[in-house]
Every structure is written in C-alpha cells, then in structure tokens.
Amino acid sequence: MTPGHVHPGPAAGPGPAELVIAGAALLVTVGYLAAAGRLRRRGDVWPRARDASFTAGGAGTVWATLAEPWGGPFTQHVVRHLVVGMAAPLLFVAARPLTLALRALTPGRTRRLLVTLAHSAPVGLLLFPPLAAVLDIGGLLVLYRTELFAATAHRPAAHGAVQVHMVAAGLLFTLAVCELDPVRRRWSLAVRGTTVLAAGTAHAVLARTLYSRPPPGTGFTAADLHRGAQWMYYGGDLVEAGLAVVMGVSWYACAGRARARRRRRGFRTERLTGPAGALGGHHRTPAAGGES
Fold first, then answer.
1. Where on the phi/psi map is residue 9: left (φ > 0), alpha (ψ -120 to 50), or beta?
2. Whole-number Å distance between alpha carbons of 172 and 161
3. Quick one: what percent of the chain has pLDDT higher than 90?
4. Hey, how many other C-beta atoms are within 10 angstroms of the C-beta on 144?
5. Where do the structural domains in the chain lie, given as residue ranges?
6. At a CB cut-off of 8 Å and minimum separation 6, what does 287 contact?
7. pLDDT at residue 282 greater than cutoff 70
C-alpha cells in the first residue's frame, strides 16, 4: 500500500451498518417463514422452495455482513457486494414476499396500506426498470470511480450509507426487472430484458476497469485488485444469468396462464353459441295460421 492510500472498510469487525443489515435480514426471514407457516396451517398452498430461497437470501446476507470472506480487503468487499447487493436480492425476490404478505394478512387496514403502497406512483416510478438500473449501477460507478470508496475507511457515516444503498439498490433493481409480485405497472419482457443486458454490460465494464485501475485514493495490491475484479466480473455474470432465468420462467408461466384463460373463454363461448346451447335456440316458431 502506498503512503497516504487506505483500504476502505472498518478496521476490525462489523460496524453498526452491518449489524443493522444482518439484524434486518434475520427478522424478515423469521417473519417470512412465520407467514408461510400461517398459510399452510389454514390449508393454503405455498411452495416450500420459496421458503428455501428466502432463507438462503437471509443467511447469505448475515454471512456477508458479519463474517470475513476470503481474500484481501478488496476481494472481501467485492464478495460482500455480490452477495448482499446481487445474489441475496435475487433469492429474496424469487420467493415473492409481497404476494405472501398479502395472502397471509387478514383484510384490514394493514393490508390496504400495503396494497396502496405497492400501487403508489412513487413506488411505480422507482420500479421503472431503467431508473432502477441507473440507481444500482450508477451508485457503483460513483463508489468505485470517485474518492467515496476511500472515504468509507475513516468515515463511518459514509460507510453505513454505502452499505444501505447497496442493499436497497440491489433489491429495487431485482424487483423492477423480475416483476413477480403485484405492482402498480408491469413492463414488457423486452424492456426488462434490455435493462438487464445494459446493466450487466455496465457492470462487466466496471469490473474490467477495476482490474487495472483501483478506486481513487486506495492502494490495494495488484493480486488483490485482480482477484476482486475477477469476482465482480464472473460473479456478476452468474447472478445476471439467474435474473434472466427467473424472468424467462415467469414469462412462460404467465403466457401459459393467459392461453388457458383464452381456452376457457372460448369453451364457454362455444357452449353458449353452439347448436346445443345457442342463446334463443329454444324460441317458439309461430304455427301456421296462428297469431301474427
């Protein structure tokens, strides 16, 4: 490390931001499992695979924020970013937490407020896929290509803000492109797919630049910088592939349900208009010489 250059992050152990994020992940995971259990006790179906997905997201978040991943300081930071800002949000969103909450809550004020919030204009704007991508990838560009990254080493408030933004932006982006839960407006697969492709490209370009140029104000070893950039590049590709799979499966399922609805409507229409069940098919024909 060159004189005057610093490694970012707390000197030892998790800071207040990490403790808050880990505690929140633990609480929402317990709440999710409790809500899923409530549904099953009353006889409703809720796939256990979604329980496993949400639990894995919570466990990954707790591990990434409290444990010390392998590698040097920059590699550790990148691994935390991949888990907390990309992989865990995908696992959380794939479990459809909003859908579970709406089904588990009894009709009343809390449920109405949740529906109102999900369908509100501000939330709809934040879940516009290109905007969510800008908030996510743009935040990474600001972090790694300015002095902000170095400032987090000795400014706890900046460090905490970066950690919270990483979690929030990752969740927002994943919610926006997956659209598994009921929201204000649903965007086409073309819009969401193009957004994921553009965001993935920007993430890969950032990783390539970090391979040769460290964040300003830092002095990581070349080996640490290279390893961290490789994790960012290949790990990002893996999570983005997972996003594409979730989007594709969701689109296929929605298309299948739409076809089934059209078939049912066509069957009902055929029954109503066909020879055996035509509306008005049983009208009386006036007899010859009868009343006019």
1. left
2. 16
3. 68
4. 22
5. 16-271
6. none
7. no
Question: 134-182: per-residue pLDDT in tens?
Answer: 999 999 999 999 999 999 888 888 888 999 999 999 999 999 999 999 8
The rounded radius of gyration (Å) of the Cα atoms in the chain is: 26
* DSSP per-residue string spanning 74-136: HHHHHHHHHIIIIIHHHHHHHT-HHHHHHHHSPSSHHHHHHHHHHTSHHHHHHT-HHHHHHHH
Whether the Cβ atoms of residue 172 and residue 92 lie closer than 8 Å to each other = no
Residue whose tokens read 């086409």:
188
In whole angstroms, what is the distance from residue 85 CA to residue 65 CA?
11
Distance CA 132, CA 194 (A): 13
CB-facing half-sphere around the CA of 288: CA atoms within 13 A: 0
